[in-house]
Amino acid sequence: MTTDASAAAARRPGEPALAALGLGAPALDPADASPHTFPGGGRWRTEIPSCEGPEALAVVLKEASRLDVPIHRVSQGSGVWMLTDAEITEMVEAAAERDIELCLFTGPRGTWDIGGSTRTDSGGAGPRARGHDGLAGCVEDALRATELGVKCLLVADEGVLWTLHRARQAGIVPADTTLKVSALAGPVNPAAYAVYERLGADSVNVPSDLTLDHLTEIRRVSAAPMDMYIEAPDDLGGYVRMYEVAELIRRGAPLYLKFGLSRTPGLYPYGHHLRELTLSTAKERVRRGRLALDLLARHGADGDMAPPGSRLPGVLKRFETLT
Questions:
Q1: Secondary structure of residue 220 in the 3-state scheme
Q2: Which of 253, 301, 267 has its CA nearest to residue 39?
Q3: Which residues contact 68 (CB under 8 A, 6 or more apart)?
Q4: Within 13 A of 54's CA, how many CA atoms are on the CB side?
Q5: Residues 214-238: tens digit of each pLDDT
Q6: How large a percentage of the chain has pLDDT more than 90?
Q7: For the chain, which terminus, N or C, has the lower number of CB atoms within 10 Å?
Q8: What are the pLDDT digits (tens) for 36-61?
Q9: Is 116 in contact with 123 (CB distance < 8 Å)?
Q10: Omega of the bond leading into 254 within 30 degrees of 0 (cis)
Q11: Which residues pair with 47 in a beta bridge?
Q12: Does a cis peptide bond (omega within 30 degrees of 0) precede residue 13?
């Protein structure tokens, strides 16, 4: 675990020069630091998102080797239903060979459905699964993916999350399956974050516009791993928070650093008509990861990465499952 002393020892961006000019920042408050870590040690892991098939995954793995970027998880956004069995199997085997967690999105979502409310200014119910059939499609995707060896499922609906958590407890999907809440439905206050944890979430993607104080507030009520785009896609705000990475870790640990990419068109649902864009952006996401890791190293804040290959979230709080 990072101590207050080690956090204070890390060099803050520009601080020595600014202090010499009488413009130094206030000292960090130790009370703001998260007390939590991943099981087995470490306060941060890495994730490469929008890995939309085996070809994109191969590009990510090759570039990660070239740039020496450690990867704990890769995630896909188009959905299980957009991949063939052979493609899923190829991705499972490639990720397993590198001891990387593969996370695939489950089922239909309201933003692609026939419901008109999601296309209004209000956004309607957003990405949530509409009706019994929407829920059933997500469950079908979960069953198919786990049967093919996928160990992490991405969800954007509270009902889907609770249903898959119950399915995991009942042995319908493997007990070591992890459930990740999408940024499309991410909570923005500590009470909501705690509810997602209790519904079965093993990691929760919060919107990238949360303040540092918001992260501290969340960590006072929940130890569930947090995912956050260090650079967010344009449809999630396009935020670039590279210089805040050390403080995001200090406040938000245990934290997945997600290396997204702004100023790019959307990729979902992926198809071969988007192949060149998907492969080029996959490569650049890894490079963005290298930039963030280099920045951490320059500031002496690159310690406490979770061991490569670690994926489980530790003991978390859950609602009682009623039959």
A1: coil
A2: 253
A3: 290
A4: 13
A5: 999 999 999 999 999 999 988 888 8
A6: 75
A7: C
A8: 999 989 999 999 999 999 999 999 99
A9: no
A10: yes
A11: 73, 258
A12: no
